[in-house]
Design brief:
By secondary structure, the chain is an alpha/beta fold. Helix 7 packs antiparallel against helix 8. It is elongated and about 80 Å long. The two termini are 41 Å apart. The relative contact order is 0.08. About 15% of the residues have low confidence.
């Protein structure tokens, strides 16, 4: 049985139990047993279910258990002098098993945090991070990256509009880490109608609130939240994750040392995980992103090749959006 089929069947059984709670108070003990069985099955399948769906199932199971608790109290009213009775069941908590040895059950909050649960909140930025922010209609090179006494390897690029961020065409960008590019974590927040050409990093790239941007980046992980109408030319060693996004186009990260040789290449194996569509497949894809076609990738390559010869960054920025 596939995970999607299990979740569908499991949810149907839970809905049946929910309907029976109101219909028959005398059947509460049997319903409690059925609820506990659902909890055990969810635990067994937890590793194979997308975290987003697991959170929903866990929440609905908790609501069912609370309803059963109320129904149990109604069917067994307390007398004036009776001691407080213990509930006929314990609230069920789901834990992703990490070994065959029994251990304490993880609380839901810890479970979700450890499995990269979807969230609409902005990922936190290290307080010591360097920041390049609140800039409009400007060309930005690696020379504009501020220096800090903490020597933080985190860089925040935030609140830019109609800018051209070029960290690869400048001498410093071509030199890489030996000349200033010591970044291991990138935070790209609230970027509008901008182009970003970024060298690769070894860490994560977090994007939030980007709109109408061309972003060329590479790293270990990409997470993109609440963004739309962006083209991302990327190379990543783990599955990119998006949430609350729409109109995204993913293509291949170019070899800036020789752009023309790889301009039309596409990583056909690239799969983006959309938390809003956890069970998307090749035959039923997420509507929020797509992989660039050969023609779209060729246009990107042509533009990148042209960018190496064109000094007018504003013309390049406008051309990037006309071609994408």
């Amino acid at each position: 049985m596939a995970a999607a089929e299990f979740v569908t069947t499991w949810t149907s059984r839970l809905r049946t139990l929910q309907a029976q709670v109101d219909a028959s108070s005398s059947a509460v003990p049997q319903l409690v047993n059925s609820s506990q069985q659902l909890g055990r099955e969810l635990t067994e399948w937890a590793e194979r279910i997308p975290t987003y769906e697991l959170r929903r199932c866990e929440s609905e199971l908790k609501i069912l258990n609370e309803a059963l608790s109320v129904a149990s109290n109604k069917s067994n009213p307390k007398t004036k002098f009776s001691f407080k009775k213990k509930l006929p069941f314990a609230p069920t908590e789901i834990s992703r098993a990490t070994s065959s040895t029994p251990g304490p059950i993880s609380p839901p909050s810890a479970l979700l945090a450890s499995n990269a649960a979807p969230s609409n909140s902005v990922p936190p930025v290290p307080s010591s991070a360097r920041k390049l922010n609140c800039i409009t209609s400007s060309y930005l090179s690696m020379d504009q990256i501020p220096c800090t006494s903490s020597n933080s390897s985190a860089l925040v690029i935030e609140s830019l509009s109609k800018c051209f961020v070029d960290f690869v065409r400048s001498p410093a960008g071509q030199a890489g880490k030996s000349n200033g590019w010591d970044v291991s974590a990138l935070y790209l927040y609230d970027l509008k109608d901008s182009v970003l050409l970024l060298p690769s990093i070894e860490g994560s790239i977090m994007m939030h609130g980007c709109e109408g941007c061309l972003i060329v980046c590479a790293g270990h992980q990409i997470r993109m939240h609440n963004s739309k109408r962006c083209k991302v030319l990327a190379k990543v060693s783990s599955t990119p994750i998006i949430e609350g996004c729409s109109g995204l186009l993913f293509g291949s990260y170019p070899d800036f040392a020789s752009i023309s040789r790889v301009a039309s290449s596409i990583d056909s194996q690239l799969v983006v995980q959309d938390f809003d569509h956890p069970f998307a497949t090749a035959s039923s894809p997420s509507p929020n992103w797509k992989l660039a076609t050969v023609e779209e990738q060729r246009l990107s390559g042509d533009w990148l090749e042209h960018s190496r010869r064109e000094a007018n960054w504003e013309a390049l920025r406008i051309e990037a959006f006309e071609k994408h």
